[in-house]
Amino acid sequence: MLHCDPEDRYARLKERGNIWLEENIRLTIEEADHIYKKAVTDNMPIINTSRHSVEEVAEGLFYWVENILHILDGRKA
C-alpha cells in the first residue's frame, strides 16, 4: 500500500488547484486514514511516500516487485 502522511496528502491535493475543495480533502484524508489502519491491522506492506519523490517511489517499487518475481521464479525451478 502506498501511503503519505495527512499533512503531505493535504499539501499535494491543494497543489492540484481549485478542483479540490476543503471538504473533499478532509474526506479523502479520513478515508486514507481508515484504509491505512486496516492495512496495519492486516499486516500489509506499507510504503510511506511522504518523504520521497515520485521517481524515488517508482524506482523502489520496481526493485521490490522485481525481487518478488525473482523469488517466485526460483520457487518454480
Structure explained in plain terms:
The two termini are 29 Å apart. The protein has helices spanning 6-15, 22-41, 54-76, and strands at 2-3, 47-48. It has one domain (2-76). Strands 1-2 form a two-stranded parallel ribbon. The protein is elongated and about 50 Å long. It has 77 residues and is mainly alpha-helical.
Give the gist of this structure.
This protein has 77 residues and is mainly alpha-helical. Helix content is 69%, strand content 5%. The protein is elongated.
Helix/strand layout:
Blueprint: E1 2-3, H1 6-15, H2 22-41, E2 47-48, H3 54-76
Parallel strand pairs: 1-2
Helix pairs in contact: 1-2
**What is the N-to-C order of secondary-structure elements (H for helix, E for strand)?**
EHHEH
Largest sheet strand order:
1-2
Unreliable stretches covering 5 or more consecutive residues = none
Per DSSP, the total helix count is 3
The rounded Rg comes to 16 Å
| Number of self-contained structural domains | 1
The residue fraction in helices comes out at: 55-70%
**Overall geometric form:** elongated
Major β-sheet, in short? Answer: 2 strands, parallel
**Taking all residues together, what is the mean pLDDT?**
91
Beta-strand portion reads: 5-15%
Count of individual beta strands:
2
Helical/strand content category? mainly alpha
> Between the first and last Cα atoms, what is the distance in angstroms?
29 Å
